[in-house]
């Protein structure tokens, strides 16, 4: 996965936004005003994703290219080495998991607007 594919995937998630709150090189993706993924765009060597604490430990044990979140809360964030052997499918799955975890913590109305699918109106 390259930086463009990464960016496109993150922005494809409903309500996702990108910002540079930590300087011009750190691209951060948000949903509902909360971070769910970030990377240094000058190197794109690592991405950080939020993770369930128990799953975070399991992934670190299973994959050498998954390490405790660099400059993040090590309990809730993992860093994924992008030059490693992690398949794109898994990286996308972990980005989606991170997005979902953040959505779960949002206020109900906002959470519902991001998780609901439009319903068709019945004709009278």
TrEMBL record:
GO terms for molecular function: DNA binding. Coiled coil: none annotated. Keywords: DNA-binding. Pfam families: YjbR. Signal peptide: none annotated. PANTHER family: CYTOPLASMIC PROTEIN, CYTOPLASMIC PROTEIN-RELATED. This is MmcQ/YjbR family DNA-binding protein. It comes from Chryseosolibacter histidini.
């Amino acid at each position: 996965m390259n930086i463009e594919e990464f960016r496109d995937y993150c922005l494809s998630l409903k309500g996702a936004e990108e910002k540079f709150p930590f300087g011009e090189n750190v691209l951060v993706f948000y949903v509902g005003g909360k971070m769910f993924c970030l990377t240094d765009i000058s190197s794109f060597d690592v991405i950080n994703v939020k993770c369930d604490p128990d799953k975070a430990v399991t992934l670190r044990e299973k994959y050498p290219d998954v390490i405790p979140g660099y400059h993040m809360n090590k309990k809730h964030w993992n860093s994924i080495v992008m030059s490693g052997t992690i398949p794109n499918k898994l990286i996308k799955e972990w980005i989606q998991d991170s997005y979902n975890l953040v959505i779960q913590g949002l206020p109900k109305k906002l959470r519902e607007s991001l998780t609901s699918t439009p319903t068709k109106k019945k004709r009278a």
